[in-house]
Amino acid sequence: MKKEKMGRQVMIYDTTLRDGTQGEGISFSAAEKVILAHKMDQFGIDYIEGGWPGSNPRDMEFFAMVRDESFRHAKITAFGSTRRANVPVSEDPQLQTLLEADTPVVTIFGKTWLLHVTDVIRTTAEENLKMIEESVAYLKSHDKEVIYDAEHFFDGYKDNPEYALQTLRAAHTGGASYLVLCDTNGGSQVKEIDRIVSEVTAALPDAKIGMHCHNDCGLGVAVSIAGIEAGAAMVQGTMNGYGERIGNANLTSIIPNLAVKLGYKLSCGCNMTGLKSFSNKVDDVANKIPSKKEPFVGKSAFAHKGGVHANAAKKVARSYEHITPETVGNTQRILLSDMSGGSSIAMKAKKMGIDIPEKSPEMKSFLKKIKELENEGHEFENADASFFVLLHKEFLGHEDIFELVSYRIISEVVRDTDRNISEAVVKLRVKGEEVVKASIAESVGPVGALDHAARIAFGEKFPALKAVRLVDYKVRILHRGEGTDSITQVLVKSTDGDETWWTSGADPNIIHASWEALRDAYRYKLLRSRGA
Question: Distance between CA 397 and CA 366 in Å, rounded?
C-alpha cells in the first residue's frame, strides 16, 4: 500500500552544482557555486551537492571556500563512490578525500546491476556488497550523515531484483540515512517506477527511499513524482533540468508539482513565489537564456495568444491556467498576433495602463490593422513598444511630432585600416516647424549610423531621446518571396538606462525595416516621457 501523502515531508536534494555541470555548456566557478549555494539555501533546499572532491581543482576550491560560509537551512554535501574492490576502507584515498572536504553530509554511489559488478569494476557480487556496507559504515563512524545513491538501480532491479535489494540492505545496514534509487540511463517508464518503488518500500519498510532520475525519455519529472507517490521521501534533481545528455529531472517542475499540486510538505514550500526568480538566477550565473517553454517558470507558461483563450482567461483565469501564475512568481501575458480578438487587445492594453473597451467602435478596424501588419511581416508578440505606439495612434488619436523626409546611407571600406564605415544623412521635419532638420553621422554599420544621425537631427527639440540607445538588433528573413525579394523583419531593443523595450519593422529593404523599428523606439520614448 502506498504511503499517505498529505502532510508527508519530502526532502529536496539539489545536484545542480555537481551533476548539473555535466551538462553540455554548463560550468560554474567555485565562487559562482558559493553564490548559488546561498540562493538554494535561501529558497529552502534541504541538501546541496557541491561536487566531487578530488575529481577537479574547482570542486576542491569550492569545499575549501564553503567551510567558512554559514547556511540557514541547507546541508552541503560532498559526492563520491564506495571504496575500491579489495581495498580496506581506511586506505581508500577517495574516501579520505571525501572526509577532507569537511561537509556534514557525504553521498556515495555504488553498483546495483550485476552487469556492472562483474564486467565493469570486475569483482564479485559478495565483494560489491562489502564495498557498499563498509564504505557507508566508515563514513558514519566519522560523524557524517551518509546518503547512498544506488547507481543504475532500476536496470539492476529489472535484471536481478533479489541482488538489487541486497545492495540496498547493505547500505542500510551500514547506516545510510537515505537509499536513493537512480534511473541513471533515464530509460524507465512511469508504471515501472511506480511498481518497483512500491516493491522496494514494502521490502525495506524501515528505510527512507529517494529518487534520482534523468530525462532521456522526457519523463524525468514524471518518474520522480511517481517514485514519491509510491513512497519515496527524497527527490534529487537539478535547477532548470541541467545535466548530462538530455539532463536531470527538473526541480523547477518537481517542486511546484509536489508542493502546489499534490500537497506534500517541502521545506521550500513557503517560498514558491520566488521560484521563477530563483530559476532565472541560476540561468543568469550559468550564462544561459531562460527557456520560455519551461512549465511554471517559463515566460510562455501563462501566455495567451488565441483570442478565444484570452477572452476566457479574462473572464475566469483558471479556465486556461492550471494555477495562479503569481503562485510561482510568474505573470499572465497576453500575446498579440493575427489570431488576437478584442479581448486580447483590451487585456494587453490594460496591462499597459490604457483602458479600451473590447466592444469599442474602433476595435474592429484595429483588429484588421493588426492582422494586416502581421501579414506584412510586422511583429507585435515580442515587440510590446510597437504595440503601445499603435494603440495610441489608433485609439487615442496620437499624431507623430516628427516625420522622416529622407535618409541616405553610404558604406565604404577604408583600405589603409581595412575598416568598414557607414555614413548616414537623415532629414526630419518637426511638427509645427517649416525648417527641415538634416544631420550626418558615422558608425561601423548602417543601422547604427542611421540611429545616430536621427538623434542628432532631433537636437534639443526632444531631450528625452538623448538617453536612448540601441542595445540589441535581430533580423529574420520571412520567406514570402524569392531570395533578396523576401520580407526582412527587424526587432530592435532600446534602453534609456531605466527601461528597455522592443520595437519591430518589416520591409523588403533591411535598412527601411530597421528605420521603422527605430522610429517606433523614438515614438515610444516620447510617449512615455510625457506620461502617456
Answer: 13
Length of the chain (residues): 532
Residue type, position 185, single letter:
N
Q: What are phi and psi of 102, to 5 degrees?
A: 60, 45
DSSP letters spanning 122-169: ---HHHHHHHHHHHHHHHHHTT-EEEEEEETHHHHHHH-HHHHHHHHH
Q: Tell me the residue ranges of DSSP E strands in 313-386.
A: 333-334
Question: pLDDT by residue (tens digit) across 199-251?
Answer: 999 999 999 999 999 999 999 999 999 999 999 999 999 999 999 999 999 99
Rounded distance, CA 331 to CA 145, Å?
Answer: 40
Tell me: pLDDT of 480 over 70. Answer: no
Apex CA 463: angle with CA 461 and CA 464, to 5°?
Answer: 125
pTM recorded for the entire structure: 0.72
For each of the domains in the chain, give its residue range(s) and CATH number, in order of start: 11-285 (3.20.20.70), 303-370 (no CATH), 376-389+469-532 (3.30.160.340), 402-461 (3.30.160)
Name residue 347's beta-bridge partners.
Answer: none
Distance CA 75, CA 121 (A): 31
Residue type at 264 in one-letter notation: Y
Phi, psi dihedrals of residue 525, rounded to the nearest 5°: -65, -40
* pLDDT tens by residue, 372-422: 888 788 877 778 899 889 888 888 878 888 888 898 999 887 766 677 888
Question: Hey, is 501 helix, strand or coil?
Answer: strand
Give 316's contacts (C-beta < 8 A, 6+ positions apart): none
- Distance, in Å, from the CA atom of 23 to the CA atom of 135, rounded to the nearest integer, reads 28
- Which residues are 455's β-sheet partners? none
